[in-house]
Amino acid sequence: MAREINCTKLGKLSEGLEKAPYPGELGQKIYENISKEAWQLWLKQQTILMNEYRLSPINPDHRQFLEKEMDKFFFSDGESEMPADFNPQ
């Protein structure tokens, strides 16, 4: 039986993640409050950010930027930062 949580991002009861998807305190907070569906939305957003800003996951500054954007995406009213010239098709 899948674990259900009240997803703070989607505002509804949804299937929870199977394990913390990110290390540390932020990963635990995501595990406890974010659904699989919302996590998939973040993965799409993260891909856009990495491609548009040409980020590398091995660069510590880039990882720090992505972590801040992840926290904003899930736990604040603001949206994740998008490049000024980004034009979704």
Could you walk me through the main structural features you see in this protein, from its secondary elements to its overall organization?
The protein has 89 residues and is mainly α. It has a single domain (4-75), classed as Fe(II) trafficking protein YggX (YggX-like). The protein is built from 3 helices and 2 strands; from the N terminus they run E-E-H-H-H. Helix 2 (36-53) crosses helix 3 (60-75). It starts with a strand and ends in a 14-residue tail after the last helix. The mean pLDDT is 91.
Reconstruct the topology from this structure.
Elements: E1 4-7, E2 12-15, H1 24-33, H2 36-53, H3 60-75
Antiparallel strand pairs: 1-2
Helix pairs in contact: 2-3
Mean pLDDT: 91
CATH class: Mainly Alpha
Listing every helix as H and every strand as E from the N terminus to the C terminus, the arrangement reads EEHHH
What helical percentage do the residues reach?
Answer: 40-55%
- What's the Cα radius of gyration? 14 Å
**CATH fold-type name:** YggX-like
CATH architecture name: Orthogonal Bundle
Secondary-structure-based class equals mainly alpha
Q: Number of DSSP helices?
A: 3
The fraction of residues in strands falls at 5-15%
Please provide the count of β strands: 2
Residue windows where pLDDT falls under 50 for at least 5 positions: none
In order across it, which strands form the biggest sheet? 1-2
For the largest beta-sheet, the strand count, sense and barrel status come to:
2 strands, antiparallel
The CATH superfamily is Fe(II) trafficking protein YggX
How many structural units, i.e. domains?
1
Shape: globular
Give the N-to-C terminal Cα separation: 38 Å
